[in-house]
Design brief:
InterPro entries: Inhibitor_vert_lysozyme_sf, Inhibitor_vertebrate_lysozyme. The protein is an alpha+beta fold and 138 residues long. Helices cover 37% and strands 25% of the residues. It has six helices and six strands. Strands 1, 2, 3, 4, 5 and 6 form a six-stranded antiparallel beta sheet that branches. The longest helix has 17 residues, at 3-19. The radius of gyration is 24 Å and the shape is globular.
């Protein structure tokens, strides 16, 4: 190995050691340490109107799809329905729920959307239809 290559390799190793523990850390460890703990919790936090189910809403609907009757509802953040919406589908027995959280940043034309509860394709269709019905394009 040439002297230059040895020095370059040693520099790379020293740089790796200088960055130290961060290179060896694992995500579960970081989620319990400052400053990462607070950022991680904020990423997983939903707004109060979503967590408590307290929003502006119309009556829920019973929708039949694939021979099953689903309960479908929509609500939005009070005084900010244009930018903060939640569509929810409940299973026929009411023991499962899935959602579509739609949030629009200030001055944005489109919503950032996130499915909740790992819905399958049938549930995604119901959620997307509920969203579209409550957000007509005309």
């Amino acid at each position: 190995m040439t002297g230059f290559l040895k020095r370059a390799l040693m520099g790379w190793v020293v740089a790796g050691v200088a960055t130290g523990v961060a290179a060896e850390s694992r995500l579960p460890e970081l989620t319990t340490q400052a400053p990462y703990k607070q950022a991680y919790a904020a990423m997983l936090a939903y707004p109060d109107w979503v967590k408590t189910g307290q929003g502006t809403a119309a009556p829920v609907e019973k929708v039949v799809m694939d021979g099953k009757t689903w309960t479908v509802g929509q609500m939005c953040k009070p005084h900010d329905c244009a930018a903060n919406q939640l569509n929810v589908v409940f299973s026929p027995d009411g023991k499962q729920a899935w959602g579509l959280l739609s949030v629009r940043a200030e001055n944005a034309e489109t919503f950032d959307q996130q499915f909740l509860g790992m819905p399958d394709d049938t549930i995604k269709k119901l959620l997307n239809k509920s969203f579209a019905d409550n957000n007509p394009t005309d």
